[in-house]
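To: structure desk
From: M.T.
Subject: fold request, one chain
Message: Could you run this one when you get a chance? Sequence is below, nothing fancy, just the single chain.
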Amino acid sequence: MNLAEYALNNRALVKFLIAVLVVGGIFSFVSMSKLEDPEIKVKQALVVTVYPGASAHKVELEVTDVLEKEIRAMGDIASVESKSMADLSIITVELESTVPPAELEQKWDILRRRVTNAASQLPDGCVTPVVKDDFGDVYGMFYAMTTDGIADEEMVEYANLVKRELQDIPGVRRVDIYGDRKPCINIDIIQDKMANLGVHPAEILATLNNQNKTVYSGYFKTGKSRLRIGVDDSYESIRDIENLLIQGHENDQLRLRDVASVTRGYQDPSRNEMRYDTVRALGISISMEKGGNIVTLGEKVDARLEQLKSSRIPVGIDFQKVFFQPDRVREAIGTFMINLVESVLVVILVLMLTMGFRSGVIIGTGLVIIVLGAFVILYLLDGTLQRVSLAALIVAMGMLVDNAIVIVDGILVDLKRGIPKPAALTNIAKKTAMPLLGATLIAILAFFPIFMSPDTVGEYVRDLFIVLAVSLLLSWILALTQIPIHADYSLKVKNEHLSEEQLYDSGMYRWFRKFLTYMLYHKKFAVGAVVILLALSAWCFQYIPQGFFPDLSYTQLYIEYKVPEGGTLEAVQGDIAEIEAYLLSRPDITHVTSSFGGTPSRYNLVRSIALPAMSYGELIVDYTDADALKSSIPGLQQYLTEHYPDAYVRIKRYNLMYEDFPVELMFCGPDPAVLKSLSAQAEQIMNDEPTATLVTNNWEPEAPVLMVDYYQPIARQAGLSRTDVGLSLLSATDGLPVGSYYEGTTAMPIYIKSVDNEGEETAALENIPVWSVLPSLTGLDGETIKGLLMGTVKKEDLLSEVVGSTPLSQATRGVKIEWEDPVVWRYNGQRAIKARCNNAQGYTAESVRGKLIPLVDTITLPEGYTKQWLGEHKASSEAMRYLFKNVPWAIVMIIVILIMLFKDFRKPTIIFLCLPLAAIGIVFGMLISGKDFGFVAIVGALGLIGMMIKNGVVLLDEITLQIASGKGRLVALLDSSSSRFRPVMMASLTTILGMIPLLGDDLFGSLAVTIMGGLLVGTVITLVFIPVLYALFFPIEKEDKVGALHKSDNEKLDNEWCFSLKETTVLRVVNDRRMMKTTLLILTVLFFSGVCPAQIVELDLQKCRKMAVENSKKLQSAEQQGQKAGFDKKAYRANFLPKLSATGLYAYVHKKMKFDIDGGYLPVYDVNDVGQAVPLNSLYMPEGKPVLGADGIPLFKQYAFMPDIDLALGIENAYTVGVMLEQPLYMGGKVRSAFRMASIGKEIADLNVKYNQAEVLAEADAAYWQYLKVCEQVKAAGKYLEVVKELVRNLEDAYRTGMAAQNDLLKAQVKQNEAELMVQKAQNGLALSGMNLCRIVGVDLMSELTVRDSLGEGIVSGLWEEGDNITGRPEYNMLERQIELKEKEVALTRSDFLPQLGVSASYGYSDGITLNGKSDGIASFAALASLKIPIYHWGEGRNKVKAMKAEEEMVRLKKEETEQMMQLEVARARYNVEDAATRVRLTRRSLSQAEENLQVSKNRFEVGMETLTNYMEAQAQWQKAWSDWIEAKAELRVNETYYLKSTGRLSD
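Reply: Done. Structure tokens follow.
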């Protein structure tokens, strides 16, 4: 019982389950998580480190470099990119895209530990690094909180209120506020008042720090209680700060307000701000918990905000939606519902027009049930409704009815044939259930590489596979269950008992059969036409735009605004204010949101995030509609570029391409000047290319720096240290932080600033007052104290000198301007610069890059510099690599299914040969539509492959069934194509029309075009080209008559269809099980071959040689050649012996052959004198003419009578047998010459085996000694690294104590880097040489090798004992044999022109032939002698013999020449051995000298008598001497091998 029969017998259960799917589908659709984009995690983290006062290069060397080295050692790192600026280091750590999302938290924990470990190596004054791994979180709701007349501080308080309230909503994960200015307390100290009152800045610092310091006071025990004791240390208000008594002035009751003003303000400069339509605003970003419903959550957030506005937030504060994902998701779902209804209606309408109203309703109802059922399964799998999953359902819409169309069409055909309805409902299901399941699985497997792609892009589109797999499997189940039940009720077909011809007798079918018949009889024409179309499409492919991901259709874009580093936030705000005014004046723009200092929030997944910088601003622009947005971009970009030439302004649309720029060329190297020069060349090329626009680089131009020339003698005389100068400058500029003031739960930092009497900052830097943190006692000597006691020195003057300040110009040598790099970028530990550009309107990034590549390749890179393409090319290449990495597995599984279905290889081959032809439809479809051929289009092409294979399976299965029913192949091909014409056409048509709603989608439009175009052509290919290929693989010429004979038996076969179907089903199940067992066995072997650990192999030279000989395919082939020569020799020996053969013949004819000879009267003849026959008694007329009868024959007087004769010839059991013996006596020497040539061939084959064996041994020896050489090089490199590391450690210790210069330490660190690279190269060389040796000895390439030999230093004993003789070489002996072989060829040629004599004898016996019933056996014996003597052939024999002698002489000359070359080769090999031995001795001596020199240099360096450069040179010489010694030893061993080979003594 199959599935259809089970469903018909259990209708109540099936109906109940369908009801569950319908109700559950509606519930699941309402309850499922709804998002705009799939939930994917950004695999990036930021490491932010503040190093106040350091320049960009100092931050790079002392902070960024230290952190990068530690971070890059953690593993699974794709790239580490850093930006070092003045005071700040930002490192972007990107994990490999293959890291599973579940492991991200673990990876970030490892990153934090690495950063913590490196923090101890950072310089003093460096703030602890902060790891931020959540900046990639997507905030689906982004509001602008605007106000009308409410102060900033109050607005921030209300924003915090909103944040607390929203975080209490279930489903809200996080709420962030952007643009809030941080409040602070400013204490402006007036230097003149401090000097007059004798107050030193250190006293104010001590006062503030002591007052605000937490002090542990212990606990007090009272009875059974233990009470904590605390000392109040907090400020209640700003007035408390003003009233603080200054430490050291308790007697005169001086308070802070007497020398300073205390005010409340905001931190300056502000780090980020935000405006909405030119109005000050705060950004409120809200993210959702995983698995939530963004639509429902958005409604809750809106309701809570309205509640707050009506109850707790004052009038004037409003919330504007900058980006609100719930609205977009709601719109997307609404569009999906419309597209779903449209697709269902289109499918039903098409099916109604082609298959009838009832059939259309049946299939359309099933389509709705499938979609609802898919919602149920997705809900159970924690799936989400978002951009990809909704598009997947639309993609699947046409595919979901394919199975149902085949089933309904089969039921209709069977009913028209007159098959009873119960049987008709299950007949098609029995025949096609397994083929349809296989085809469905193949369609699913076509999308399998998407599911297996582990990178971010694969994760984004992964739901495409899940939705398609779920819905297609459900469609197969419902096609076999729901469709037969529904058809039983609804289908009303008249039982017409139509024949095969009557079923397909319409005009369309007749035209199709004629066309297909023509193609089957003109197969070469059909193949040629397809090949031409394929070649044309391949040529046209170059004109299709190549892309990655298209820009998405939003009514919003964003504009990046960047000024050179060092620009102020106020300047950025001024320019952006002008841009705001211009944008808001345009009628197509509705709102403009501006942010300063960074990107306000990652409010969706498809936008890039800028690193925070005060020189950066951004505008988020809302348009009236998407078309207005697209049309305005060129003009708007031109306006911004022309009006703001000093800034870099770029318009960006939302795109899944996560790189900052679409086209990026990165140069890496050590010198910034060289990098800038290379980038300038690349930028010039980009500027000259018209398709490239907005060219820039990621480094900033050098910026001016005010450098205070601190001169210690002058400063010390004024009692000022370098720290004093720095802190004084800080207090006069940004303010000196001295603690915090808490107002409720809000912490406000306290800053001390130095101002003049008017409370203004000092206008000139040279006039800034500089004071010492500690009072200066340099002028307080004995004379001063004496003058103070005697009254000659005034107390006020002394106080001014001790606690007063000094202008900066008097404490230093002034202020000068220097230029420095404000930013230093690094990529994977190297300084890097990126030349960047955008693609112009109408061009793709890949096409621009293609035009730039030839010009960029002309740039000459200095030694140590590299270039690499990044941007969209890098992202696209990685995505394609991971996608196509899994395509082979999908192909293997598809092939397995096809073989299981068809039980052979030819039919799957037919299907696969059709697949490339889908490119015809794809190419022309893309050209007509103008879409880019990017990642999504490739995904569509993969799905198209599955659809084409599915149609091919259905057709080939029908062909197989038709042939199995007894039809000839030609008839079966025509009938099968006709019977599958409507199902295949309908399935393709519904799929194509179901894609129409996706054509306008920016992301999935190219996928729809790919499938629609490819399937349109693919359908024709399936119905026409598959039969043509079938006819080529299974010839039909001999089958036509058979098909015609069997065609008359169709009625009989129709009556026996039940029995045949059951028998076929049983056989198929048995064969399927066998095939599945074989498949599982193959997959198991493949799996365990990939996961088993590598083996450990121990080798010495002899074992290596033995294994190499046993494993060599080349040697095995030579041995087979030797065996073949041996068999040839035995075959030619047989020519000397007589040949005995026997023959036999038997004939049987059922009927006797009868011959009747009619009798009658015959004339009588006689012979005359001249021997002629003349008639006797002829009748003559009087004139002498013979009398003629009525028949014109002369009449006679006398006739003879012959009776009738009956003959009967019978050969019912006729037979004949015989034996023959043949013996050549003399063949001119041909037999003897041929045998001798075969014997020489065997000798040459044996020598060839020895020659190949020597070649294999030489290769094995070279690989073996190479591996030993690299092993020793790894040890030498490791030892050298240890020596350099020891030097670096010693220099680091000396540098910390001030006994070594920093440049010496840096030189040593550079040497350490070189040594580490040397170790890495040696280890890589060891791995490669090991793999090569494993290949030669025939073990797994990943095997671990252990060798027991060493290189040694001397020449092996006995090497010269046998001299330089070459007679033992196989090549030499082979030449000797070839000369002898040519001699025998001369004799063989001569034998053709000499006499040849042979004898033979035979005996035969025949019987069984009867004549009129009588039979007599016949026996015979024959003897034969044959002699052939050539007499004259016009010189042919003589000339052939001379030609062969010439060839013999050529071989002799070649042998003499080769002999000389061999002797030369032996001499060269001998000299090479002697030279190598000498080199070993000399390099060993050099190594000893280098070791002694290194020790001497080390001792001298440690006592200060040797420079670092000389010491490192001694180390390098020692390392080189060691490496040369190793090379010499390995060279000696290899040369010994080649000497043995040249003398013919190399054997295992």
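Reply (cont.): The first strand starts at residue 33 and ends at 34. Let me know if you need anything else for the meeting.
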